[in-house]
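Lecture 7 notes: from sequence to structure.

We start with a single chain of 419 residues. Read the sequence below before looking at the structure.
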Amino acid sequence: MNFIVPELAEPLEAFATALGIGLLIGMERERRPDSAAGLRTFSLVAMLGCLFAMLGETTGGGPWLLAVGLVVLSVAMVGSNFSTQQEEKYRGFTSEAAIIVTYGLGAAVWMGYSTLAVMLAIATTVLLYFKTELKQFSERMTPQDINSMLQFAVLSLVILPILPSEDFGPYGAINPRQVWWMVVLISGLALSGYLALRIIGARHGAALLGIFGGLASSTATTMMFSRHAANHAHLTGMASIVILIANVMVMIRLGIIASIVAPNLIVPIATVFVCGILPGVVLSVHGWKTLSRAGALPMPEVKNPTELKTALSFGALYAIVLIAAAWLQDVAGSSGLFIVATVSGLTDADASVLSTLRIFNLQRVGIDEAVMAVTLALVANLIFKIGLVVSIGGRGLARRSLPGLIAIGVGLGLGVLIV
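Now the structure, written as tokens:
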């Protein structure tokens, strides 16, 4: 039996959502003794925003009534702060800013943006709650780190939207926006690993260095720890585990990219990747006990992943591989694609895999050919890193690392046979 008047059902739902938003943000503020407002204040402010939005809509006041409510709220906050005459040091403007945001979120609920308002309320609460952690994060940032984030913002928010989304060049293989989207995708993943390395550092263990090093650059991680093993023989076992984990992360990272770029290929590619990941994980766990005996490990020397020169280089390489793959596939069939995948995969598996996914999306190769080309690129890249381990790390590191790296390659091969 419905006890609510039908005309009131929708307004009550809106006000209940606004109240929930106010309670959520207010609960976080209530636990802080230096906060200018608490649970009740934020709940009332959220409902006030919803109320003024409703009155503006029903009376024809429109946005002006909302603006009036904001002015009244601001005057009330100024008057409250003035009347307290606090003599302690300046405590900031955080609570006041949160009150204004809460008022706006309450208004957004009435305007039909309930889901967005709730999401923003959660984000606001997270920002308020993790004050100490965010401060520490900011203090650890160097000018280079800030430049990296700003450059990524330029790559993704300035350059990407203005590029044309049309096919150009030989075989129509080049789509400027699609090429740059790959640059943004790779740069974003590399940036996350780069920042994680900068923030976490080496003190939390080599396993995390392997994980984030693989996200940032598995080649740089392999090269760095091969050199480290050559200079510090007692840490050879640790370096081998870091290298193995970093190379497992390459498959995980490319699997995520493949699921975004070519979702129709995710099942066969995931099957192949899992066959390569499992032996790598098993051997990493087997050597896990050596982690506790590690000394101080160096940070991988990873270049700024979002530097414009780096982005342009990757975009140019990706475009060249696209054209070469399309041409060879047209001239020599699948074998041409396999040649390009193998050669380009030696030094850059990302460009090779992404070009294969692009050609698959253009329906120029089938599932089997695409999976084979992706696998060849990864195996070629693995062979290149085995060469780094042997030539730089020496016999000791090779003896510990090669079983794991070879097991990954064998797993990839078995995965292709299964598919």
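The two ends are 56 Å apart (CA to CA). Keep this in mind for problem set 3.
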